[in-house]
Amino acid sequence: MTAFYAEEIIYNLIPKEEKKPVKTVRFMSTFKPTVIREIQERKTAPSKTMGIPKLYIPTPREFLRKHANEPKLLKRRRNQGIKKPPGLNVPERNDHPIMGIRSKKDYISSNVAEAIMAVAKKPLRACVDVRKGDKFLLDDSGLIQRYLHKKDFGVTPKYIKKRIMDAKKAQEESDAYLQQALLQKGLTRLSKAEKEKIMEGLKKNWEEINHEYQSLSVFLDSIPRRLRKEKMEVEMMQLEHYIKLLEKHDIVYISSV
């Protein structure tokens, strides 16, 4: 085994002075005296708690008497809290009524006239569910069809008529604008009679081609027969397409160019 030794230096032979560590100034809190005083107070009075430091302890002669803890109210003054009544037009005790005044009205005749001229009171219609049940009025119960007898029942309101007229006017303006735009582009609208006439012609052509198509032989041994059959099928499909378009759309425009 090989041993490792520290390298010798001549400077290590010179004695060195030991340096004493310099002590730093210790921090002292400014609240230290207060803390020390509080600790001493706690030691002298270990059972002391928060609250009033000194309490008055009554003597045995000062025992609790009846109604001692009840709040004492101030003495009521004379005429305190009494509200004066409002002034009334009451005659005084010494006032005497005016005597000798008589009315010339004949109350009997007037009552008879009022009874004759009075309109008989219309009885209210009521309903009772059972024999000894409660009575309730029928007019406001919803069981009677009151609104059927109104003058304006079933009449279209004015605001709905106005909306319909506005919508109709807007539709007419839109149609007029569209018609003008189509005329500028060279398109004309087909009338109903012209449309029906064109549809009849298309259906007639389809029937003629279909009749010829049905009369073809089943066995097609030549190319011209096959080409003729294919041509008739294409024409029939095209005619069916035109017929469906005319039946689907009520308004049809055609180009005049």
From TrEMBL:
Pfam families found in the cross-reference section: Enkurin
Domain of life: Eukaryota
Domain spans labelled Enkurin: 162-254
One GO term describing the cellular component: axonemal microtubule
Gene Ontology MF, one: calmodulin binding
Protein's cellular compartments: Cell projection, Cilium; Cytoplasm, Cytoskeleton
Main location: other
Entry protein name: Enkurin domain-containing protein
Source species of the chain: Podarcis lilfordi
